[in-house]
């Protein structure tokens, strides 16, 4: 008797029959020891989105916060961003909402106050009614409508809370569940011009009509709640695919009619179908009238643009070359009028399509006669159409946007200056904010970054900061930048980009002034000119000062003021300067105090020191309190003198506040602060002392506290250079912290303690920050005491308290300075800076709220964003980059890109796409890459070539890049290895070895020599190094091992292995080779006696994309696969006879990760490892391994919060089960923790976590056993203690630990 068995031979399955005797004989072999299975340590995976994909689907002007706030909503795949058009004409980030947990497939805006819209200017609105009891002015005039892929409608608007925070109010409405998810119900969504009805359709057959509630009812619901805009709904079927859907404008004589137009594709062609009904009647009782069914000519194809016209029941269909105008389509079957667009001589316009349209806001008189339309073509051309009486009266080309446009295009309400303000975004192109002014070319006001599609990415080691081991003091440091992420993007033939993805607060440069005598500048101050809105910049040098006026209008010239026109002392260095609300300009020099009222030469005051030996060595001004303080040195005496300021009809007074106070220490800096209506003078000294003096009108200057700043050996490093008080409202209590910037690069916080009677009780020093080795400078806005700006060396941060009312910690947020005219700008050291205060009444275009900085011989003003976000830095390459790697030896990015060339051949033009290779300095500004010719004679050194020269065969693609370093004896060699693919060629695959090194005469350029070229019968897909002189190469559907003989300099091919599908990624941890295939997941091979042996493979067919090996003792291989799955395998538990490896954990993310790269963060055994994953749409994920204790705590919090409507407001509610309280390792998917959900918990703070855990949940659990009778709180304490230890407040400790784990650092 025998059995048929299946076994694996060289990667192929074979069958044979085995006798029973052979099986029994094997069982009787007692010499074989019993193999025990090794247990793999429990390992979880935490995913976190660190960079959201930049692609924007829709741009919607929508005032969903307040009527006075000119908001624009940017809608992405699964997030929305609210930006506000501020008075300076720029878009400023307000808030981002990304907790939808589903893809957004449609978006529109409905009006809650239609009397503000276009239809009422046309006489369609009728009489508007308001409830006198409602405060309509403070209600949002519009509501955002979103349709999610989870078949649900979301109605959304925002309320502004205290301290600039916002609360979103939403209503949910399910859509029919019997429609397939592939139909994307909601892909087409349109709203009636008067917001009386809304229509939503799938891509095939189904659509629904929703009757909206009247504005009066909506306003009452928004005021009192709950909000539900839908009054009635009705669903319809139509044969065919629904291409477009729009509501048309009704006639002024029949305003109650709603008209819905559908473009439906059927087997007989594209048809225009009309549905119209009376909105005054009940929707369910009315049978909509179907008009027409007009079939469009087949040569039109599927018109990409459908535009409803203001003229009643009319619309446009726009093809690439013709505008088709349909008029009065309900009552008459008039033929369409044609208007041919003027041809362009420089383009074949028929090959390009119009992708978007928008209608500008015009006054009511013009709207009754004309209809103005802007069209945008995919290449960025803007065409203006003026429609009158059903015909095109005028058209003109405004110019080109500097982007390719296919998605978002809108005009902002109200315009800007004297023109129309466009917002344009593309799914694969950088967008921008553009202004179209009469008789002027289009001008880009603000760029909107886009790094999609991200075709490849690399991680370069960043600068790391470490604590000083010589100091006995424990310091905190800003989170070091271990990693710099670079992606390559480009879809056109002219220019691509290398993007460095950074994260922080963007500070956009808007004004640049070159300074010739820059080395002598010691400080600067920005002083607002309240009378004109301009800004004075007072610059101090060691011997003198200068005053510059920066006008509001950028077209005006800057000018310098002298002493006569300013009333200041410009012949001496300035120590402090400021201005008051009543236009009093204050300057303190080393010899005088100068006061002047702007615009009134009769109101001036100057007081000089009397003694020849007297000098002012430090000074401060508090313009809000009208107080100033000076430190005067005379011979051996140092005194503090405080003065009051007053401006009245009799002139300017500068009186002494109280008797001077003599000091025994050497003061360097001082500041006057108000704390709960009491005045205090803080003084920092060179001896590392902090002095506190009370300012009392009755008692004068009262010394209160003398305290050492830090106990350090290096006394010079403790000298206090700057002082700044930061105050915030925590609950109902005002909390204040004094920050000291020390000369040795240390930032020291002192928490201010007060008695119940608001008197200053003491200062408690917190843990200092080590920022660098140069002096720490701190300044802030007098109008905003909740934050300060800190600089040290090349770093600049915003200092503020954490928003959580129960947390007294503060945070340092990195500021990244960008220049629209120089996208590749490298962050340099800011030598000096000043904060320009916002004025209560300031004209548009002023510098209020800006930072005035001096760096690299330039004085520039930059606008600081309020929220941190990804801030890309761009390096241009002359082509479309496809692959890249980083060479440590060259310290260059090696970029493979495609370039296009054209050759005229009679009536035809031949287009050639050839690969090129260039070396890009990641720190260049701008970059000047070296280009490599892949077809050159290998004996000649490579020279930089022009971008138009061919470098590879036409149609050839670079599919693999590898930076290879190998050693032979004492010699080390460096090669760039290029793998190519060229179908229908004699050699479909090539392997090119390039020796590259810096040019000895010009180190900025790279000299390269092609050493060898190997040809293969199949494309080369991946390359990895094996042993000192070997390579593993993926060719076709197999892998090959070849090694270089250092003596003979010849290559030897010694092993091949055929796989079931194409290998896409290879990694090596000798003696094992890990191969990820395109359709059959992971294979682990081992080279034994010059041939490959299969060690293990995944038992499930998966479509692999990339893999990376982790460093831990668990021997985890992390793989990414199509569909967004991230799977971890470990061969540590394999038995010798086993060949199938099982997943250790499985995570699912919204987008497929095309590239996995390990972080450069130092690894320590037992600590988590970090891996970054890049998706094609530009999203960057961070994956962190978790130990068992950390996984149980985080998974427990996630399980609890999945059912919480605050954390996951749009997920389907579910009943909790016992497994939610006790996370079990039941399947690999349960080992995944979603860090995006946990980040929302951190944002809501300590009190929220405690409230959730203390809820009584006994009645809400199902299938609970008697052994699992404890509640949330008991389980939380069980899981949190092993992670954070025994602490007084475990909730605060857990939030702090999670915040540190989830923080975004780039």
UniProtKB/TrEMBL annotation:
<dbReference type="GO" id="GO:0006397">
    <property type="term" value="P:mRNA processing"/>
</dbReference>
<keyword id="KW-0507">mRNA processing</keyword>
<dbReference type="InterPro" id="IPR015943">
    <property type="entry name" value="WD40/YVTN_repeat-like_dom_sf"/>
</dbReference>
<dbReference type="InterPro" id="IPR018846">
    <property type="entry name" value="Beta-prop_RSE1/DDB1/CPSF1_1st"/>
</dbReference>
<dbReference type="Pfam" id="PF23726">
    <property type="entry name" value="Beta-prop_RSE1_2nd"/>
</dbReference>
<dbReference type="Pfam" id="PF10433">
    <property type="entry name" value="Beta-prop_RSE1_1st"/>
</dbReference>
<feature type="domain" description="RSE1/DDB1/CPSF1 second beta-propeller">
    <location>
        <begin position="563"/>
        <end position="792"/>
    </location>
</feature>
<protein>
    <submittedName>
        <fullName>Uncharacterized protein</fullName>
    </submittedName>
</protein>
<dbReference type="InterPro" id="IPR058543">
    <property type="entry name" value="Beta-prop_RSE1/DDB1/CPSF1_2nd"/>
</dbReference>
<feature type="domain" description="RSE1/DDB1/CPSF1 first beta-propeller">
    <location>
        <begin position="55"/>
        <end position="448"/>
    </location>
</feature>
<dbReference type="InterPro" id="IPR050358">
    <property type="entry name" value="RSE1/DDB1/CFT1"/>
</dbReference>
């Amino acid at each position: 008797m025998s059995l048929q068995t299946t076994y694996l031979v060289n990667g192929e399955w074979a069958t044979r029959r085995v006798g029973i005797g052979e099986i029994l004989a094997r069982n009787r072999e007692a010499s074989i020891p019993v193999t025990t299975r090794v247990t793999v340590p429990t390992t979880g995976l935490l995913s976190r989105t660190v960079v959201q994909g930049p692609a924007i689907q829709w741009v919607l002007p929508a005032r969903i916060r307040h009527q006075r706030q000119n908001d624009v909503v940017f809608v992405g795949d699964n997030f929305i961003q609210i930006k506000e058009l501020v008075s300076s004409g720029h878009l400023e980030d307000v808030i981002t909402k990304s907790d939808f947990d589903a893809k957004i497939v449609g978006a529109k805006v409905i009006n809650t106050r239609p009397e503000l819209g276009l239809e009422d200017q046309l006489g369609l609105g009728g009489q508007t009614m308001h409830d006198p009891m409602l405060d309509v002015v403070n209600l949002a005039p519009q509501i955002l409508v979103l349709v999610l892929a989870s078949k649900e409608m979301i109605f959304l608007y925002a309320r502004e809370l205290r301290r600039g925070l916002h609360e979103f109010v939403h209503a949910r409405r399910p859509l029919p569940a019997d429609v397939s998810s592939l139909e994307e119900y909601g892909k087409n969504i349109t709203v009636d011009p008067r917001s009386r009805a809304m229509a939503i359709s799938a891509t095939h057959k189904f659509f629904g009509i929703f009757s909206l509630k009247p504005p009066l009812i909506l306003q009452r619901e928004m005021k009192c709640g709950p909000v539900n805009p839908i009054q009635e709904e009705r669903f319809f079927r139509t044969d065919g695919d629904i291409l477009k859907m729009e509501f048309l404008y009704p006639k002024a004589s029949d305003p109650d009619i709603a008209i819905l137009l559908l473009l439906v594709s059927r087997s007989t062609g594209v048809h225009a179908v009309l549905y119209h009904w009376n909105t005054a009647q009940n929707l369910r009782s009315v049978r909509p009238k179907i008009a027409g069914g007009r079939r469009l000519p087949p040569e039109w194809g599927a018109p990409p643009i459908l535009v409803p016209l203001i003229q009643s029941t009319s619309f446009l269909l726009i093809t690439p070359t013709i505008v088709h105008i349909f008029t009065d389509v309900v009552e008459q079957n008039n033929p369409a009028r044609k208007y041919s667009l003027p041809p362009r001589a420089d383009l074949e316009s028929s090959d390009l399509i119009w992708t978007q349209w928008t209608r500008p806001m015009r006054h009511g008189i013009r709207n009754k006669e004309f209809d103005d339309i802007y069209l945008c073509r995919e290449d960025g051309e803007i065409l203006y159409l003026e429609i009158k009486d059903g015909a095109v009266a005028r058209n003109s080309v405004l110019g080109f946007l500097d982007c390719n446009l296919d998605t978002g295009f809108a005009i902002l309400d109200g315009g800007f200056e004297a023109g129309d303000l466009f917002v344009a975004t593309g799914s694969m192109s950088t967008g921008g904010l553009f202004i179209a002014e009469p008789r002027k070319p289009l001008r880009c006001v603000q760029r909107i970054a886009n790094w999609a599609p991200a075709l490849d990415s690399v991680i370069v080691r960043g600068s790391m900061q470490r604590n000083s081991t010589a100091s006995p003091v424990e310091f905190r440091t800003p989170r070091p930048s271990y990693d710099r992420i670079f992606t390559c993007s480009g879809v056109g033939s002219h220019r691509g980009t290398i993007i460095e993805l950074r994260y922080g607060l963007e500070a956009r440069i808007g004004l640049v002034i070159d300074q010739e005598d820059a080395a002598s500048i010691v400080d600067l101050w920005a002083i607002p000119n309240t009378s004109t809105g301009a800004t004075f910049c007072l610059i101090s040098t060691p011997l003198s000062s200068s005053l510059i006026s920066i006008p509001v209008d950028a077209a005006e010239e800057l000018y310098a003021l002298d002493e006569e026109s300013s009333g200041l002392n410009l012949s001496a260095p300035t120590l402090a300067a400021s201005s008051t609300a009543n236009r009093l300009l204050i300057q303190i020099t080393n010899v005088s105090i100068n006061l002047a009222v702007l615009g009134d030469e009769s109101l001036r005051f100057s007081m000089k020191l009397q003694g020849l030996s007297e000098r002012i060595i430090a000074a401060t001004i508090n313009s809000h309190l009208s107080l100033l303080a000076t430190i005067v040195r005379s011979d051996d005496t140092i005194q503090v003198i405080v003065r009051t300021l007053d401006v009245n009809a009799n002139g300017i007074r500068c009186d002494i506040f109280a008797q001077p106070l003599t000091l025994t220490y050497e003061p360097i800096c001082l500041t006057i602060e108000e704390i709960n209506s009491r005045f205090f003078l803080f003084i920092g000294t060179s001896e590392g002392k902090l002095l506190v003096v009370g300012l009392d009108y009755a008692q004068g200057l009262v010394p209160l506290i003398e305290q050492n700043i830090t106990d350090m050996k290096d006394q010079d490093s403790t000298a206090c250079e700057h002082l700044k008080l930061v105050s915030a409202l925590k609950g109902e209590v005002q909390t204040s912290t004094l920050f000291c910037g020390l000369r040795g690069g240390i930032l020291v916080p002192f928490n201010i303690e007060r008695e119940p009677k608001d008197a200053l009780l003491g200062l408690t020093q917190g843990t200092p920050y080590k920022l660098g080795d140069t002096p720490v400078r701190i300044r802030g806005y007098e109008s905003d005491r909740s934050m300060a700006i800190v600089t040290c060396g090349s770093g600049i941060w915003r200092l503020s308290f954490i928003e959580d009312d129960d947390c007294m910690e503060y945070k340092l947020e990195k500021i990244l300075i960008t220049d629209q005219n120089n996208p590749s700008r490298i962050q340099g050291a800011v030598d000096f800076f000043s904060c320009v205060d916002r004025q209560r009444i300031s004209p548009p275009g002023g510098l209020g709220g800006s930072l005035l900085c001096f760096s690299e011989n330039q004085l520039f003003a930059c606008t600081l964003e309020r929220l941190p976000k990804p801030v890309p830095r761009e390096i241009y390459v002359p082509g479309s980059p496809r692959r890249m790697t980083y060479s440590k030896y060259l310290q260059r990015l090696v970029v493979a890109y495609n370039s296009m060339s054209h050759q005229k051949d009679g009536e035809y033009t031949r287009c050639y796409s050839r690969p090129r290779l260039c070396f890009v300095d990641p720190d260049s500004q701008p970059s000047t890459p070296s280009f490599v010719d892949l077809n050159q004679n290998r004996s000649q050194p490579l020279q930089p070539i022009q971008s138009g020269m061919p470098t590879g065969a036409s149609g050839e693609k670079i599919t693999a890049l590898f930076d290879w370093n190998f050693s032979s004896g004492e010699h080390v060699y460096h090669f760039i290895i290029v793998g190519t693919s060229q179908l229908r060629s004699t050699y479909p695959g090539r392997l090119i070895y390039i020796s590259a090194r810096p040019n000895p005469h010009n180190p900025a350029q790279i000299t390269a020599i092609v050493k060898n070229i190997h040809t293969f019968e199949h494309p080369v897909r991946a390359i990895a190094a094996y042993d000192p002189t070997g390579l593993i190469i993926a060719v076709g559907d197999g892998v090959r091992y070849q090694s270089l003989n250092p003596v003979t300099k010849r290559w030897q091919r010694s092993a091949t292995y055929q796989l079931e599908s194409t290998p896409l990624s290879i990694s090596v941890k000798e003696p094992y080779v890990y191969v990820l295939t395109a359709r059959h997941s992971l294979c682990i091979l081992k080279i034994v006696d010059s041939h490959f042996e299969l060690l293990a493979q995944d038992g499930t067919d998966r479509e692999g994309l990339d893999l990376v090996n982790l460093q831990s003792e668990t021997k985890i291989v992390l793989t990414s696969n199509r569909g967004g799955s991230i799977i971890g395998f470990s061969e540590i538990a394999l038995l010798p006879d086993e060949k199938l490896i099982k997943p250790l954990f499985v995570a699912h993310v919204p987008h497929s990760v095309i590239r996995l790269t390990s972080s450069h963060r130092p690894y320590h055994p037992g600590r988590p490892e970090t891996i970054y994953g890049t998706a094609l749409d530009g999203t960057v994920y961070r994956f962190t391994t978790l130990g068992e204790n950390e996984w149980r705590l985080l998974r427990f919090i996630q399980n609890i919060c999945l059912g919480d409507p605050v954390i996951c407001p749009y997920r389907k509610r579910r009943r909790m089960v016992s497994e939610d309280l006790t996370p079990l390792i039941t399947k690999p998917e349960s080992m995944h923790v979603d860090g995006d959900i946990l980040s929302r918990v951190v944002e809501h703070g300590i009190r929220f976590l405690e409230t959730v855990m203390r809820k009584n949940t006994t009645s809400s659990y199902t299938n609970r056993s008697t052994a699992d009778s404890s509640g949330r709180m008991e389980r939380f304490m069980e899981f949190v203690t092993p992670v954070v230890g025994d602490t007084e407040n475990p909730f605060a400790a857990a939030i702090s630990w999670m915040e540190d784990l989830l923080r975004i650092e780039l």
